[in-house]
Amino acid sequence: MLSRKTRSRIVASSAALAIVTGTPQAYAALDRQPAPGHQAESATVARGKPYINTRLYFGTGRPDGKPPVSNRQFLAFVDKHVTPKFPSGLTIQRGRGQWRDQNGHIGREGSYELSVLYPASEARDHDADLEKIRSAYKRLYDQESVLRTDDHERADF
Q1: 3-state DSSP call for residue 47?
Q2: What is d(CA 61, CA 108) in angstroms, rounded to the nearest whole number?
Q3: Residue 119 bridge partners (DSSP)
Q4: Model confidence over 74-130: pLDDT tens digits?
Q5: I need a labelling partner for 78 at 20 to 30 A (CA). Which of 30, 45, 143, 154 fits?
Q6: With 50 as the cut, is the pLDDT of residue 11 above it?
């Protein structure tokens, strides 16, 4: 009969041997290329057509003690300045934002994220529309900036 100490050494040695011999084989399997003539399965399928998703971030805080831009004011702004340029649809999300102003002060305020999706082939045409929207908001509500991001995506409706 084996002693407890000997049994523990055998178990430990077996585990170490399994790790040493098993691990390289597992990694080697991950590095294998498909055989000629066989396609590797894709994790995702590209669907839809090329679109641009532009997001505009609107702060609601205003300088000089003026009240923040209200929900009613923001939705009226969207109705007047955004919907006519993007009648097919848009998404609005409320948020809380933080940013450093031109004087180096950290400001925290309510915000809105507006997202519009449009065909990539129309990007040049919509660029001017989006810049007019940003300029109008800055002018009407005394904003230093309106952040814009553009992402290339594929969409299928």
Answers
A1: coil
A2: 8
A3: 51
A4: 999 999 999 999 999 999 999 999 988 888 989 899 999 999 999 999 999 999 999
A5: 154
A6: no
Where do the structural domains in the chain lie, given as residue ranges? 1-30, 49-155
Q: Using DSSP bridges, classify how beta strands 147-155 and 106-119 pair: parallel, antiparallel or unpaired.
A: unpaired
pTM for this model (two decimals): 0.69
| Distance, first Cα to last Cα, the chain | 71
Residue 33 clears pLDDT 60, i.e. is over it: no
**What would the mean pLDDT of 64-71 be, rounded to a whole number?**
93
Report the residue count for the chain: 157
Q: HSE on the CB side for 22, CA within 13 Å? A: 6
Sheet holding 106-119, edge to edge: 91-100, 106-119, 49-59, 147-155
Third-level CATH fold of 49-155: Alpha-Beta Plaits (3.30.70)
Integer Cα distance of 59 and 68 in angstroms: 9
Question: Cα 12 from chain centroid?
Answer: 47
Token pair in block for residue 80: 């007047």
